[in-house]
Design goal:
The complex is a heterodimer of chains A (213) and B (216). Chain A is an alpha+beta fold and 213 residues long. Helix content of chain A is 53%, strand content 10%. Chain B has 216 residues and is of the alpha+beta class. The chains are: A alpha+beta (213), B alpha+beta (216).
């Protein structure tokens, strides 16, 4: 094929976000529904930038209590001890398992923070209408989208520690208030990655005026 | 057309283009000479059925047993969420139950429905809806994350008590691999190519070619 590279929009075609069928809408201002799967057709996800920003800001706010409040409270023979996420990492490290400490550190602290920074960076680039390196930005988006679910790790760790260590009256573990905030950070950043439309990174000047004006 | 000599009787013959799943037999001795490329949904369906069995075992048998100072406790996947709920962290409990049990279960159920219904094209429209729901569930189905979480949890508990992994743990591990196999072998374009269109028309007969090719 020797056709010059052009986007579907430039060719007057629209790809369905559900089933990927290309169709030529009769009225470009109001594309209607996909003839194959019946999904609502959109040129770019509606309000992608605003929704993604809203989710990122909410996640950033929750990130603070998620790290400051305890996620686990251990009661053993009358004494009570609380652990934050970082405390859990340090516990794993000092008890001799640095690989697990590293996994939890990466999954629970670095990935959520990295996702927030990466998505904000992508959004700022799109809004300033100057995407520096499109290939790198696209790769960054894919990594963010792929890696997000692994942050849920700490929530599962806490759930199973709580479920197993119920040896009343000797010892019991309760979930702390930090878990809810941490889980909210993970869910919100996953949703943020889903609402961001990666096509915005590749749009030409004409397409930007159309979708991001 | 491709010339071939029968392996059994050495008769030289041509093999015609074969339909999917079709077989070419030797004109003289009846030996199978070639098979058309297999049904693209057979392998995903086999993996999905196996994954469903593993999923059921993983959720009904204990994940692990714990014994400390003469006391014993054991938990299932759902039990982990239930304990969270009882300890007053209801929102987290719901999230754990969703990501560890409900999302993988629905994901499997939707895939199973799609793969069974699509065997007889043209598939009805609800199959498309099911496929869309399966894609929606995919990122929230976190069994492999849960497995790693259990590993870390086990290590944390190891100093307090003896922990023995149960049947559920092994089944969950098998489930992770089988689900990955389903996702690798299933081509959703092939599914869409066999579903009745929303505007009432039948899918183009050349199943497997993307409609995008003709739109240009």
């Amino acid at each position: 094929m020797s056709t010059p590279a052009m986007s579907a929009f430039e060719a007057g075609l629209l790809s369905c976000t559900t089933c990927n069928l290309l169709s030529r809408p009769a009225d470009p201002a109001n594309p209607g529904y996909c003839p194959r799967c019946g999904a609502h057709l959109v040129w770019r996800r509606h309000h992608s930038i605003q929704y993604t920003w809203a989710l990122i800001i909410a996640a950033t706010i929750f990130y603070i209590p998620a790290n400051l409040l305890p996620v686990l409270t251990t009661t053993a023979l009358g004494s009570t001890e609380s652990d934050t996420i970082m405390g859990g990492v340090i516990f794993l490290y000092t008890s001799g398992s640095w690989p697990l400490a590293l996994i939890v550190l990466v999954a629970s602290v670095m990935i959520p923070l990295g996702k927030l920074i990466a998505l904000a960076y992508l959004l700022i680039q799109v809004q300033r209408r100057r995407v520096r390196n499109r290939h790198d930005s696209a790769r960054m988006y894919r990594v963010v989208e792929f890696i997000g679910r692994w942050s849920m790790l700490d929530v599962f760790v806490d759930a199973f520690v709580v479920a197993l260590v119920q040896l009343q009256p000797l010892m019991s573990v309760e979930p702390g208030p930090g878990v809810v905030f941490f889980m909210a950070v993970v869910v919100l950043t996953m949703l943020a990655a889903q609402t961001f439309d990666p096509r915005l990174l590749w749009d030409s000047e004409r397409e930007r005026q159309e979708f991001n004006g | 057309m491709e010339a071939i000599a029968c392996r059994d009787c050495d008769l030289l013959q041509h093999i015609p283009p074969l339909p999917p799943g079709g077989k070419a037999r030797c004109a003289r001795c009846g030996e199978t000479l070639a098979t058309g490329h297999a049904d693209p949904f057979r392998l995903p369906l086999v993996f999905t059925i196996a994954a469903t069995i593993a999923f059921i075992i993983a959720n009904t048998t204990p994940l692990m047993d714990l014994s400390a100072v003469g006391r014993e406790s054991s938990t299932t996947i759902f039990g982990g969420a239930l304990e969270m709920w009882e300890q007053g962290s209801q929102i987290t409990a719901v999230a754990v139950a969703f990501c560890a049990v409900i999302a993988p279960g629905c994901h499997l159920l939707f895939l199973l429905a799609v793969l069974i219904a699509v065997r007889r094209p043209p598939a009805p429209r609800w199959v498309g809806e099911m496929l869309r729901s399966a894609h929606f569930m995919e990122p929230w189905s976190m069994t492999e994350v849960m497995m790693l979480g259990i590993l870390v949890a086990l290590f944390k508990i190891a100093q307090l008590a003896t922990v023995i992994p149960g049947t559920g743990m092994f089944a969950a591990g098998v489930f992770v691999f089988l689900l990955a196999a389903v996702l690798v072998t299933l081509d959703s374009r092939e599914v869409w190519a066999r579903i009745k269109w929303a505007d009432g028309t039948l899918p183009p007969t050349s199943a497997g070619t993307d409609a995008a090719g003709t739109a240009r």
